[in-house]
TrEMBL record, chains A, B, C, D:
Catalysis: reaction(s): N-acetyl-L-glutamate 5-semialdehyde + phosphate + NADP(+) = N-acetyl-L-glutamyl 5-phosphate + NADPH + H(+)
Locations listed in the record: Cytoplasm
EC number(s) on file: 1.2.1.38
Protein's recorded name: N-acetyl-gamma-glutamyl-phosphate reductase
Species of origin: Paramicrobacterium agarici
Length: 347, 347, 347, 347
């Protein structure tokens, strides 16, 4: 069976990555691609790398254009999807790659985003430990899915096994992320100009202001934490894609190095898309470029009393579009890996 | 008065940066440049950017070649300088850019480096708070100086004001650094190949094994800490030079945001080469490229209970060769800024 | 039917890209991977991005290990494959990604490579115009195939339509290529260190010495040129992969701009993997990253009397491993596109 | 004597580089910095790397603000300086870094720029061969100077010795340039976003449309060419700064390899800022980063009948701001090298 697919916001980076992956998906057929100011242009004028889709033309982003598909992927700035998707049929599978439906707490929404809160949808991180199960249990059969924040899901997957097993403390987490500028979208801001990014490392949202912080806390609470505090600092570095998250948490009293390693290895032993490297190894973002894989290395630093988890993710793939498609596969009852790759494009 | 200068290890990155800066120094005259396997070659064959020094030829790295100069800068791998410099005259100013004479503790040396410990020299971080004074007091008149580890001095300068003033705790520090590959030297290792570094972020020495850890602890103890623990993770990113260090420490009980900011602003108010940015601003490594400047932003994250200090340094300049020359200026009684620049080369 | 596959030289960049593509190929099964000094190691220790192949272990590169497979891909340095492949069964499909079997002329071989010349195999550029047909006619049913030089095939595909149709002159061609360092292989040479490549453009083999020059001339002669001369300059730029070839040739007397454009558009109208952009557009290497696509823009510069063809290719994919697999598909009678993608990974 | 200096357009890349160099100039004192939309902001808010100038505030770009200085450097978009500078006193030294006063031919101006043509000023490439002399002869005592186009001056310096000595032909020149995105200015255009530049090579203005083409032809005519034609293609590559120009021209009948090399070596033997590398060597852009140096390698390719000249220049330094300051030094009778460096910042 083939599912018809529309992508709203097809001219941006998340939209482009959705289309790149969808073009390889054997069960999905892309029939509609929408944009705002670029409506009427050939898709390939905005996404010149999608040569197999050069027959597609961008149309307006309206409920009418999006109606009548089996699946609608939405890749719009936050605040733009809530109202739009309210018009879509309940039986349509809607996967929102924006932030509008990620947070359960209206208070968090107001504090970090502002504007109307449209409520939470099924959160698109299938491997996340949630109580005694996984988030994929929630996604099965869902018709409204919120793909995660790329930084948020990376940190959640990094720490959930330790939180759930009790071998780390969830207070006083420190995460520092090297991130590529595509995570900020195709937006014309001075600090995103090539000459400002090449040859330099550039931190932003320093000191507890990044919008993914409440999302991480929510994910870790689902994994079993009662209290979460996190110091979170992203640093833009000169690579187009990728997140390399270094997350540290205090070792819980009495937890041994072996118990710690076992917590992660057990948690992800059967996950094709979340893989734990052997002791002493750490990942690079190149290892997961274009792939739906989160690759992580675990080190126990007894001198500092902290576990260090280093996780590599492609922000556009596993961080956004890959997570969206993986979640859609689950929702529709397709094999979870359909249309997704494990191997990165390196070097 | 002009001082004659020899540079041992002139074919590597630290040696090249020393020579680039020395060529602009009005009081120093480069008379001898030495190398090991490249002895006999024109300097410019190894350092093609040093066009003003194309008259120089590399000679062997021997005590005989290095003797008779007013100043000897040593840029050799660790373990190579201890014996060599023992042969040099006591009145010669020797500045070692390697690790051999940085650590006071033989135990630390054995644990992190191994081999013979040659003892500590005057540590070349002039702005470092040491007790009631600064490290420049120790450097004045010194004839044996150890230039700092680039990562180590960056973290020391980042945190010393908070430690000295008591507004942060020195236990449970977490530092994550985005670093350029030139910090690893001109060494032919697979993970330093361009195709392995371009487009990717690559952590190393994860979990408490990096050699700069005891050096940081030593520096912070000098600044007033009684007990130091640090989780330290460097990540190689695709920029040739630069360190962007994100260091966080717990806010001391009762310290206010205003007190915290004041601690840093007061500490560096009169320092041309260590500058604190206004509240809300953070530095980029490009801002200090080629300069002798450490530029830092301070954020107080009350939700996580941590101060975040983000500091940008050029690992080869302020991190190594600039620190060496600044320290030499002090030792010789020259104005401290002689031959050094504050402004970076950006974009 | 599934074909068993061995890859000789699986630890290098070409070998890694072969395996990345083979892992997605529905008709091929990777059963043997060989290496030289890394024999005995897990494949994933050398190719950490190939997570789906973490069950494979590298074995020695010997005729015995390679025998008994349906297909053997060889990714060894030039001069290493001639003797090795002589031992393989005639019915085995052998695809050599090295230079040993690309040149028909022993004189050219001696002048540019030296050592024993093992003779030419079917050349793996299916879309290349050869007389009245295409090179794919030669590849059908072949059992010995030489994958092309990445720079060479890029320039051949760029200019063959003009040469074959007579709208450009084949003497006095000028090609300048921006290339990523992965084209030079995983070799420990100082000029390939990251710090030497980041932030800089670095030409090499300037002045007519590059080994791909006779290969280009051979290809253009097959396309119909009687006399070929080419000034060829590659420049390493800071991107891990990619070739952006700017090739110019004099407009043949009497050829109009319309005729010129038509020559290219007609030649590649039915080719999925060689695409000509509309007038006024030019490609970027990112558009073909990881893809088997050569993307080209054509401009007629009447003021200078030259046609300018700008072509983007991924040196490891369409330039090497993709061409090898595409050629193998043809040789075995499989659909030519099997296991290959048209769309690049951008941004 | 100290000259007072104003910089108009201080918030952009050319303005920033002017200020970086001026800050090190012992005879110049920066008293006024102007901007358009950023008027009123601290300079350092726009140029965070210029820490020694943090006392300066941007004011409006008006004739009133610029009047009364000994020197006015103008770094505005083309078309903006003609009218503005008409108001400045004749005795004020005005150096325009824009295009408004580079071209003598109103026809060329109309064809490539359009709008009012304000006429040509003394062209700021001191080392350019002009008839029997050098362009510095024209610059001595000048009070209106047009700094060159960065690409244009690079190609002019590359080929003038061959043209002037008659060893190459000036018709059918081909130049392909790898350039950093800072050459396009701090302008918010999609193709200049970091994610569009990182990891890719991106040609533009292909096919004879680039505005520097008539400027190159003008320069080579001054050097002695009667007829100039040039195929010119710039390619943006992922480095913030730098131009690596590969220029080829046909060898004149009868010219020997020795004569060709001698032409370049003789032409630049006494020039500190234009240096010719020994036979077999080629430059990298890193070798001249931040420096006022054009570094070139010459190869004679007899098989293709062409000379290949590869020249590295920092587009912001020697290509723009360095040329402006060097020219100002000459105009004012100061030593030509004052305030400028020969050595690049590498790696």
């Amino acid at each position: 069976m083939t599912f018809t697919v529309a992508v709203a916001g097809a001219s941006g980076y998340a939209g482009g990555e959705l289309l790149r992956l969808l073009a390889e998906h054997p069960e999905f057929e892309i029939t509609t691609v929408t944009a705002h100011s670029n409506s009427g242009a050939p898709l390939v004028a905005l996404q010149p790398h999608l040569r197999s889709l050069r027959h597609l033309t961008l149309v307006d982003t309206t409920p009418e254009r999006l109606s009548g598909h089996d699946i609608v992927f939405v890749a719009l700035p936050h605040g733009k999807s809530g109202e739009l998707t309210a018009h879509l049929d309940e039986e349509t599978l809607v996967v929102d790659c924006g932030a509008d439906h990620r947070l359960e707490s209206g208070t968090d929404w107001s504090a970090f985003y502002g504007g109307e809160h449209f409520g939470a949808w099924a959160y698109g991180v299938p491997e996340l430990i949630v109580g005694d199960g996984r988030q994929r249990d929630v996604l099965a059969g869902a018709r409204r899915i919120a793909a995660p924040g790329c930084n948020a899901s990376t940190v959640e997957l990094s720490l959930a096994p330790g939180v759930a097993s009790g071998v780390i403390e969830s207070t006083d987490i420190v995460s520092v992320l090297a991130v590529g500028p595509s995570g900020a979208g195709k937006s014309l801001k001075p600090h995103l100009l090539a000459a400002e990014v090449l040859g330099t490392a550039n931190p932003y949202a320093v000191g507890g202001t990044h919008r993914h912080i409440p999302e991480i806390a929510q994910g870790l609470r689902w994994a079993g934490a009662t209290d979460v505090s996190i110091s979170f600092t992203p640093v833009i570095v000169p690579m187009s894609r990728g997140i390399l998250a270094t997350s540290t948490a205090r070792i819980a009293p009495g937890a041994s190095a072996a118990q710690i390693r076992e917590a992660w290895e057990t948690a992800y032993a059967d996950e094709p898309f979340v893989q734990v490297l052997p002791d002493g190894q750490v990942p690079r973002t190149a290892d997961v470029l274009g792939a739906n894989t989160a690759l992580m290395g675990i080190a126990v630093d007894e001198a500092s009393g902290r576990v260090v988890v280093v996780t590599a993710v492609d922000n556009l793939a596993k961080g956004t579009a890959g997570a969206a498609i993986q979640s859609a596969n689950i929702a529709l009852g397709l094999p979870e890996q359909t249309g997704l790759t494990v191997n990165g494009v390196a070097p």
